[in-house]
Amino acid sequence: MQSLRNPKWVFLVNTAPVVLLMLLCYGEFSVVHTLLPAASVAQWKLYGGVLALLGTGAVGYAAVQAVRREPLGAWYSVGMLLAYSLWLCLLTTNERELLPWGAVPRWMLPTDPLLMAWTFLMPTLAHALLALVARFTPDDRPHNAAPNILLAVVTPLVWWVVFLILSTFERGFSNSEIPSWLREAGTVLFVAALVAGTLSFFFFLVRALFIITQRRGGFWSETSLIWKVVITILLPLLGLGVNNGLFFGQGFRNESGIFGNFSSPWFYLLAVLNGALLCVPDSARPLPRLLQLLGRSALFGYTFYFFLVFLPFLPLSIPAIILIGTGFLLLAPTLLFVVHVRQLSEDVTVLRVLYSNTVAVAVLLVGLAVMPLVVTVDYWHRRQVLHEALAYVYTPDYAKSSRLDAPALARTLAIIRQNKSRNSDFLFGSHLPYLSTYFNWLVLDNLMLSESKLDDLDRIFAGTDGPVGETAAPTATLANDRGPALRDLHTSSHYDARQQAWVSWVKLEVANRDSTAANQEYHTAIALPPGCWVSDYSLTIGNREERGILAEKRAASWVFAQIVNENSSRDPGLLAYRGPNDLDLRVYPVMGQEPRRTSIQLLHKEPCTLTIDGHSVTLGDSTTAPPVATPVATADSGVVYLSSLAKQQLPLVQRRPYYHFLIDASAKGAAHLADFKQRVAQQLAQPLPNATPARFSLVNAYATPVPAGGNWAEQFLQQPADGGFFLTGGIRRALFEAQQKPTPTYPVLVVVTNNLDNAVLDDDFEDFSSAYPESDVFYVLGPDGQLAAHSLRHQPRRVLGSAPVPGTPAPVRAWPDAAHPRAYLPSAAVADVVLGQPQAVPSAETTPPSPWLTGLLLRGYSQWQSFHPETAERERVPFVKASFRAGILTPFTSFLALENDAQKAALHRKQDETLAANASLDTLEKENPGATAIPIDNGALLLLVAGVLLAGWQLRRMRMAASVR
């Protein structure tokens, strides 16, 4: 144990944590400093400077001792214990001076600086205490454990007596005014006594344990095994049982514990195995002793984890022992840690003689790496499983087929749900301290999965029942009857001859219908015509017009939601795409009938008409600019804009229809094969006019096409009937095939199922509209054998009141010609955007000569990416950055107008996080867009740990106040 006095330990347990703490706190300070008053900024600098001074002093002293080849002295340990304890106590006392109430929103501080300070500095205090014990407990002389045990027991009693005396003293002065200097002096003395008493208690307790485990003969040697069994097996099992509610009738598998969810049988099994390895007598033979070292070091990660979890709670142990009598369980991880470290030290010392120093240290290091590697490999595997599932569902490669490990995915989703759960009996509830945070970082990139996506994944791969997705109402405004509404609308347009496009400003003024309404949100949708892009956005905040920041969409939505969730008067405005051609505008807050003004700048090739909240406006003037009669393309002809005039010059053709049956082959649909065969046969008996042979796809979690001429019913029987009915995947794969290989035929989609509610189905397939130019109708062949028409464009679950007869010929335009078509377009007299090279991804590095052409390029990429989502991880970030450079809004970005610099700094921090994360992960729950999603391990509640240091003093003040009343 004397190795703990090696100066090298200071660099690991003091320098590294202090540097990391200062970097993290600086990151938080750099975001919120503009919101802090001058006095708070001075406090941040003062505490930071003192911490830097302490860290520099420690590393300087350690460096000097290392050069001298001398161990750490006792004065160093005492100085570190007192200095850092005093710093932490003062920081806790002055927390509200660092972060005044109401000055800084909670969401801007993902982890509280006070919590970080206690977490990162506790290892320094623990090492200083152990080094001090080692200094006064050398191995080369006998020691008596009895006085140390006695002093450790007496310390809490003395602490309790002092508390009673001080309380009695205060009651005696309850009817008179206590001078402020005396009250402050009492506080200082009380805190000093509390710190000194706590440190003394742990010193004597740990020193007694050191002496007992020395096995130097006498009583302690005879009972050392009993002590080891109690400390290494009995107390850990008892602590797990108490935490999990085992002794309160809640059983082993209660998933909500006091300090975390340690209900897994693995925790109990590892506790017994760890204790057994520590209690088994040391072997005198070299190889068994080497194996003992390997096993003990391999399980040291288990011991160290619980030591780390309970380290911040150690100040609670004395009041817990006094108040509830079971506080000794808080000490169990520390006692186990001391015994384990002592045992490893003895093993290495012996093996250095039996083998060599290199062999002993190598075995030790290999063993120590086992638990971290096991956890990391397990989490990395879960990350791979999850990302494969997300890629298959949300960014699939429609040209390939794949199979996933559904059981492994189910286990991963269970952990994600467990980590999301906010049920908490006291502190962590269903979370695992530190491990949940590590899981969120490694598996979820510090983001989250919304409940809707979790439900979809469960329904797709496990076939579970889930809520049926609701489709948004097809309305241009989302305002309620009493909330904000559009009060005035102004526009201005001018024709930019340089880029041969119109530049228009649309200025909205909104106000509440109800003059008494406060902190309302204005929310509306705006449909854009083809060839129209958003190039700027602003919001009037106070007396200034604040330009919107073009940011990554998920980050901007998250920041907007957090500000709205504050329910304060801070002013954000958000503009983003809610569909391929629809904008979503949100302004907050709208108070009373005070108007809020916001403006949108649009670039459009031709004059157009917009409808906003029931008001129609015309942008541009067709008499002042020449009509666009020919196609307009980007430099490489990768993306082409076809005006209505240019489109009408394309040849009209009529393609031949064919049935494409999407048959429910899920676990629930498998029982209805005979019924499905009969329905399909009846439908095929009524052929489509001028039809080609029908095609079939079997749809469960995967969409399996049946080869041309194959027997779909036989293939149905041959493939496993498991998972859910992932109809979205089946529809998209069928449409992808039709769009990527334009032919003189087109599919009429027919879904064969007993219940469409069992299907996992998107809210719309608007982004695939270029794949169904003839009609957006698909059909469901239900139990009654009748075809029910549904829309691919809007609310696909709802039955249409009227629809064309299946296979009714609809003429379409062939582009660029009928002989060699690359795409088919609807014949309606509206403009369109097509990809000149459908198989080639547009280049993000291309620099078009005008902003409007840049918007055309970005629009082309968005359309291309809809059919090639497998490239999202590779191409998303370059095109997001291209959107930033051009200042053009895309479906991957948002304009966000913010009130202050702190909000902007928080936005940029969140944006860095989302750009580095998986494209399919979320920042918000769709069901509750105002919810905060910060993986902080319920960190706010951990502030109780620090607050307990002054709990006794606060109780005395409360008693005094009560007696005065």
Automatic annotation (TrEMBL):
<feature type="transmembrane region" description="Helical">
    <location>
        <begin position="262"/>
        <end position="281"/>
    </location>
</feature>
<feature type="transmembrane region" description="Helical">
    <location>
        <begin position="44"/>
        <end position="63"/>
    </location>
</feature>
<feature type="transmembrane region" description="Helical">
    <location>
        <begin position="939"/>
        <end position="955"/>
    </location>
</feature>
<feature type="transmembrane region" description="Helical">
    <location>
        <begin position="189"/>
        <end position="213"/>
    </location>
</feature>
<feature type="transmembrane region" description="Helical">
    <location>
        <begin position="75"/>
        <end position="94"/>
    </location>
</feature>
<feature type="transmembrane region" description="Helical">
    <location>
        <begin position="225"/>
        <end position="242"/>
    </location>
</feature>
<keyword id="KW-0812">Transmembrane</keyword>
<feature type="transmembrane region" description="Helical">
    <location>
        <begin position="149"/>
        <end position="169"/>
    </location>
</feature>
<feature type="domain" description="VIT">
    <location>
        <begin position="472"/>
        <end position="604"/>
    </location>
</feature>
<keyword id="KW-0472">Membrane</keyword>
<dbReference type="InterPro" id="IPR027550">
    <property type="entry name" value="MSEP-CTERM"/>
</dbReference>
<feature type="transmembrane region" description="Helical">
    <location>
        <begin position="293"/>
        <end position="314"/>
    </location>
</feature>
<feature type="transmembrane region" description="Helical">
    <location>
        <begin position="353"/>
        <end position="375"/>
    </location>
</feature>
<feature type="transmembrane region" description="Helical">
    <location>
        <begin position="320"/>
        <end position="341"/>
    </location>
</feature>
<protein>
    <submittedName>
        <fullName>MSEP-CTERM sorting domain-containing protein</fullName>
    </submittedName>
</protein>
<feature type="transmembrane region" description="Helical">
    <location>
        <begin position="114"/>
        <end position="137"/>
    </location>
</feature>
<keyword id="KW-1133">Transmembrane helix</keyword>
<feature type="transmembrane region" description="Helical">
    <location>
        <begin position="9"/>
        <end position="32"/>
    </location>
</feature>
<dbReference type="InterPro" id="IPR013694">
    <property type="entry name" value="VIT"/>
</dbReference>
